[in-house]
Amino acid sequence: MEITRTELMPGVWLNHLRSDKFKTACMSLTLLTQLKRDSASMNALIPYVLRRGTTRYGDMEALSARLEELYGAAVEPVVRRIGEIQCVGFYASLPEREYLPGGQDVLRDTAELMGELLLSPATRGGLLLPQYVDSERDKMLDTIRSRINEKRGYSLFRCIEEMCCYEDFAVGRLGGEMECQAIHYQKLTKHYRALLQTCPLEIFYCGRAGEDEVASATRDALSALPRGGIDYDLGTDVRMNALEEAPRYVEEELPVSQGKLVIGFRLGECMEDPDIAALHVFNSVYGSGTSSKLFMNVRERLSLCYYASSIIDIHKGIMLVASGIEFEKFGAARDEILAQLEAMKRGEITEAELNAAKAGVASDLRSLMDSQGELEGFYLAQALDGADYGPMELAELAESVTKEDVVAIANSVECDLIYFLKGGGDAGEDEEEDAE
Amino acid sequence: MQSKNYPNIGETLYCATLSNGLKLNVVPKPGFSTCYAVFAANYGGAHRRFTVDGRQADTPAGVAHFLEHKMFDLPGGDNALNILSANGADPNAFTSSGVTCYYFQCTEHFEENLRMLLHFVSTPYFTPETVQKEQGIIAQEIRMGEDSPGSAIYYNLLELLYEHHPIRDKVAGTVESIAEISDKTLYDCHKVFYAPSNMTLCVEGDVDAEKIRAIAEELLPKDRSPVPSADFGPEEGPLPVSPLRREAMSVSAPQFLIGAKLCPAPAGVAALKQHLVSQLALRLLAGASSPFYTGLYEKGLLNRDFDYEADFSAGTGTVIIGGESQEPERVLEELQREVARICSEGIDPARFERARRASLGARLRGLEDFENVCVSLALGQFDGYCAFDAPAMLERITKEDCEGFIRENLAPEKLAMSIIEPERS
User: Fold this and answer.
1) Is some CB atom of chain A closer than 8 A to the CB atom of B370?
2) pLDDT tier at B146, thresholds 50, 70, 90
3) Which residues on chain B are in Cβ contact (under 8 Å) with A256?
4) CB 3.0 to 4.6 Å from B88: which of A17, A318, A341, A363, for a disulfide?
5) Predicted local confidence at residue A428, as pLDDT
6) Distance (Å) from the C-alpha of residue B37 to the closest C-alpha of chain A?
7) B324 is catalytic
8) Per residue in B281-315, pLDDT tens?
9) Does B176 touch chain A if contact means CB atoms closer than 8 Å?
10) A3-221 matches A248-435 in fold
11) Which CATH superfamily is B244-422 part of?
12) Is residue B220 a contact partner of residue B392, using CB atoms and an 8 Å limit?
């Protein structure tokens, strides 16, 4: 599989990955814009409003019927943030002609429909329909508010919100509740038109069609895309140090029976010239997967938690350790999580730990080649980073990471904030009595 | 091994039943780096009472799940999870009401990893100390489940629908029920349910089917043990026990599940047909292009957090339709109205054809996912059919099949609704 990258129109790039091993092809259109508190929720709302209807397929029923005709070509809005770059657009998965009755080809039709979704929304007087905007805004508000429903994700979100309180990263991929509430269809239409003019647009395709065929289909589908001065000035504010000398502590009470401890770290000066392969291996040794130090010690050896794992954001330069614990084990779990990092700083990493981590990272990267969705995400991030290596090359780099590389990263990491979600009200007190 | 070609989906399947009764399914995937293997036991949370060799047994809730946790321990203090991870594999396991699955995914050392999988799942090793320690870990998992609205709403629905079937019991059990589990309980249940005759091994990847067969024959017990028969209690009636249950939890908006009991078809082709008909009928009733869903979406009574499924597990069949809504009662009313409309007017033939196309597309997408392929093959194996027959059979499902399904199973008196509401502050 070889990726090619071609500029189809000013600021419009086609990333084409030919592969004939899948049953379906995938195609995505992604607008890139800087994540900012005042515009994040408008950006995030746009693909959802566009997905409500186009000039030709005016409502959801007509649009869904068209997608079903194309053998359930799933075209869905996607909103992501990669570092502090907000990525909004559509992702489609379409069956390859080999497996459709009569060998029907749905590539051109699907590309055409995606172009319509992006460029020809249902409008009145040139404005996005207020009923679509209001209804999608209310639904997005529900989504933002529903973060609290699942406590694991909620506690991670809250830790970032507190840790990065002076950074745009804190607003999350959907933006803030207040900003979302204030969205109005006239202002949103203006914002939408500006985005179309100024945002770089990344197209990703993986499937059996050749580059010329995909380029021709997408160029036709996007022929009406207005192009003004393209805003290439996109980036992420990577802060190397913790905000205060000692880690900040934030505690929150909710009626839950299991506590959630999240510790936020800055990856530190290693982010000045980040060694991506070594960062993945570091994270794997410390806390991702079942042979990691956190799993083996905090969960298996000391039974301090049900889960404890670390995740890193290599674009933002942060790491979060998340764990689910009994309330009274807060101190012990926190100390052990930090102690495991201290041990790594002192070089206490066995050969077995390092090899397991390297093998795990390399295997994850290689298996990414077998999933179109993962490939799409990988190459979008590569396009943003201006990086030109693929998952297989990164896997090889991971295999050559040394213990010294990992120890150096551990020594660069700094704890910034400790967040603890504990029980409040009746539920919590009952639990404590039970525990005695 | 017997091989069968499926040109319509571009796959070849190798099957065999070993002399010990193990069913083997292998899907070769040249050109892929990923290998995936699942070793599954026809044993889940609902298999609490059973008969084997004329002997009856009754076990506490949560044994199958407890066993799953403890199977990774090996004699000598080793842990299979760590050995597999150290070898670059990504291992895990899950237990549902109907099955227990152990699996791994890897890109290298596939044969070594497969050997470890077969070895640890067929090597019971429990001590009173390790069992006691696990009770603490699982109690935490149970507590985490208590905070989850998703879990509460689901089990509340099952209690509304089922009078006594053990599918009502939480798969992980309760803090009290797992306290009754001893090392002896685990040894007994392992012996009965983890006999190769009660299991299946499904593998997908760039692998050699014959070699997999040889490894399974080498490592697994040679004897063919009797297959246990589960006792799920007396037959359930067609109607729910009660139509409605509400509970308050810390959620931002009301969540709901609407459900109905189905009468499961006998194992084999009939079961596969029932699965396909129910999925297609639900797509027509409540899918993305249905007047029911699009109408309520436009009125703001439903959002994208909405889904439907027919779940067949441990001798039950359950329709589940659910999401988030400020007015769950109105959603139920509209659903009943749509059911009535389909019963009187029938389904538009053009809509039926579109839905079937979309369903074929969704199945093709499902084939990209190794885990989905292997687990579907395993579940189909336990239900007497081959999952790869689904796309071809889909072509033979008719509009009348779907209309009949909706008429027979989704009448107003058959529906129950479970709601989780926000707590009033």
Assistant:
1) yes
2) confident
3) 147, 250
4) A363
5) 36
6) 14
7) no
8) 999 999 999 999 999 999 999 998 899 999 999 99
9) no
10) yes
11) Metalloenzyme, LuxS/M16 peptidase-like (3.30.830.10)
12) no
Distance from CA of A240 to the nearest CA of B (A): 32
Asked if B360 reaches chain A (Cβ–Cβ under 8 Å), the answer is: yes
pLDDT at B403: 98
- Estimate to the nearest angstrom the gap between the alpha carbon of A34 and the chain centroid: 15
State the CATH class of domain B2-230.
alpha beta
Of A219, A225, A200, A236, the residue nearest A383 (C-alpha): A200
Q: Give the length of chain B.
A: 425
CB A422 within 8 A of CB A251: yes
How much is the pLDDT for B425? 63
How many angstroms separate the CA atoms of B236 and B259, rounded? 15
What average pLDDT score do residues B104-117 get? 96
Closest-CA distance, A68 to chain B, in angstroms, reads 5
Q: What is the mean pLDDT of residues A373-384?
A: 96
Please, what sign has the CA dihedral across residues B311, A92, A146, A154? positive
- Look at residue A209 and give its three-state secondary structure: coil
Measure in Å the smallest separation between the Cα of B108 and chain A Cα atoms.
7
The amino acid at residue A337 is I
Interface contact B351, partner A, CB < 8 A: yes
A344 at interface of B, judged by CB pairs closer than 8 A: no
Q: CA-CA distance, B293 to B306, in Å (whole number)?
A: 9
Q: What is the DSSP string of B102-113?
A: EEEEESS-HHHH
Window B:87-106, CB contacts with A under 8 Å: 87-91, 105-106
Q: Is B346 on the interface with A (CB under 8 A)?
A: no
Of A61, A67, A356, the CB nearest to B291: A61
Catalytic residue among B68, B134, B236, B324: B68
**Residue showing tokens 């208590």:** B146
Q: Comparing C-alpha atoms, which of A68, A332, A120 is closest to residue A226?
A: A120
B-chain residues near A372 (CB < 8 A): 368
**Chain A, chain B: beta-carbon pairs less than 8 Å apart:** 182
Distance from chain centroid for Cα B223: 28
ipTM of the prediction: 0.85
Q: Do B140 and A326 touch (CB under 8 A)?
A: yes
On the question of pLDDT at A270 being above 90, the answer is yes
CA–CA gap between residue B264 and residue B312 (Å, rounded): 7
Give the CA angle between residues A332, A338, A341 to the nearest 5°.
Answer: 140
Phi, psi (degrees; rounded to nearest 5) at A237: -85, 100
Superfamily of domain A248-435: Metalloenzyme, LuxS/M16 peptidase-like (3.30.830.10)
CATH superfamily entry for domain A3-221: Metalloenzyme, LuxS/M16 peptidase-like (3.30.830.10)
Identify which of A24, A143, A149 has the shortest CB distance to residue B365: A24
**What is the reported pLDDT for A424?**
80
Q: What is the pLDDT of residues A44-72, one digit of tens each?
A: 999 999 999 999 999 999 999 999 999 98
* Rounded Cα gap, residues B88 and B100, in angstroms: 23
pLDDT the model gives residue B8: 93
Domain map (residue ranges) of chain B: 2-230, 244-422
Helix (H) or strand (E) holding B342: helix B328-345
Give residue-wise pLDDT tens across range B212-242: 999 999 999 999 998 899 999 999 999 999 9
Distance CA B297, CA B324 (A): 11
B107 and chain A in contact, CB less than 8 A = yes
- Residues in B touching A131 (Cβ below 8 Å): 298
Quickly count: other Cβ atoms within 10 Å of residue A39's Cβ: 19
The sign of the CA dihedral B310, B311, B316, B321 is negative
**Which helix (DSSP H) or strand (DSSP E) does residue B157 occupy?**
helix B149-161
What tokens appear for B283 in the block? 């797509």
At residue A314, the pLDDT reads 96
Domain positions in chain A: 3-221, 248-435
